[in-house]
Amino acid sequence: MVGVFPKGVDGESELAELRELARTAGVATVGEVVQHRARPDPQTFVGKGKLTELKDAYTSANAEVLLVDEELSPTQQRSLENALEARVVDRTQLILDIFAQHARSAEGKLQVELAQLEYNLPRMRGLWQHLERLGGGVGTRGPGESQLETDRRLARTRVSLVKRRLRGLSAQRATRRKERERSSVPTIALAGYTNVGKSTLLNALTGADASVDNRLFETLDPTTRGFEHDGKRYLVTDTVGFIRRLPTQLVEGFAATLEETLVADLVLHVVDGSLPEDRLRETIDAVHAVLSGIGADDVPVELVLNKVDLLDPLARRRIAHVFPRALQVSAETGEGLDELRERVSELFSDRFEDVRLLVPYEDGRSLARLYGLGAPIAERRDTPEGVRIRARLPRREISRFARFLVAGEAELDSDAEVSTR
After folding, report:
1. Which domain holds residue 39?
2. Number of domains within the chain
């Protein structure tokens, strides 16, 4: 693998993420080359002298592919492949390959396909140089169209088709989201750097069974599950992990997934608390950059330091001093989860209010509407006057049931037949 970095930057450290990406893709690293220069060479990515060194290192290592820690231009990729007579894969292409391996749902596969198509379109000249000949016959525009033009046209048609299908799936998700909004159940998005334990935290909070393999981008499709605390229900959505320099194609292709963060009432920014402080700040800044890029700046964010079970007492005190408001949890052992649930409850405490209602039997529609909110019903009793109910309603919905409100002193009889639903 090869990387170009400005002077003063630790190339070994910068390549650490590319090493992890390679491991996730099932690629064994056999050698590394680092060059320090102000900016990559526009023609060959590395300078002429470093290119000669790279060719020697590549040959001596018996490598099968060259990984580049940057998104290459079509010209740079073509020049490197010609010089090394080998396959060259840049950072974006490697990440797309990992996404293709991990996509499970129909929508996830479409999102990966869209990102791959948009990445490959400007590079089709390099891919199809041997096909730059005249084509013709059924299915082409005419005898004057080259094979390259035909494939570009087919690729653009496929891009339009995939985008149309994704819009349809996005509309379906919007319908489901409206149902959640109608019920006024608070929604929480788990965001963070990839492989920090978001899926493990989702499982620990909600009892879900999301995959938690130790590899990057294990979660691509948003997974939503619920949990209850103090009689209130909350929905938690696990989203795709972020990395530094997240490729533009992925941000655009996975807009439908990332929008779950945009519409959440709260974002829990999960970080790996066991990382060194400088690396920890890098991952936090990378996530903030992506959240800002998708327009999620105005969504409330709570920092959650995960994996604190890997820290000794001194390290815990140090990290608590650096991030005094952050919650320290371990999704693996369950430590700190009660405090996390309590923090979430406090943040949403002003959204609900305990009320007592007396709904006449003849107004069954209002009763059905009440249950349709999905609000916790603490008690219900059928009386000659109607149905007496004690519930926690969203404040914005109380006005719809104002005519059924009864005084707080009107307690439900403890010896009466009471049902909870």
Report:
1. 2-97
2. 4
Burial category of 55 from C-beta neighbours within 10 Å (exposed 0-12, middle 13-18, buried 19 and up): middle
Token pair of 348, please? 């949403």
In a domain, 417, yes or no: no
State phi, psi for 51 to the nearest 5 degrees: -65, -40
205 and 323 fall within a common domain: yes
Does residue 201 belong to any structural domain of this protein?
yes
Supply the pTM of this predicted model: 0.67
Predicted pLDDT of residue 182: 56
Could you tell me if 89 and 75 lie in one domain? yes
Looking up residue 342, the CATH number of its domain turns out to be 3.40.50.300
Residue 410: which residues within 8 A CB-CB, separation 6 or more? 356, 358, 388
Answer yes or no: are the C-beta atoms of 188 and 264 closer than 8 Å.
Answer: yes
- Which residue, among 209, 212, 206, has the nearest Cα to 236 in the 3D structure? 206
- Can you list the residues of the chain whose pLDDT is less than 70? 125-147, 173-184, 210-222, 240, 246-260, 262, 374-376, 408-421
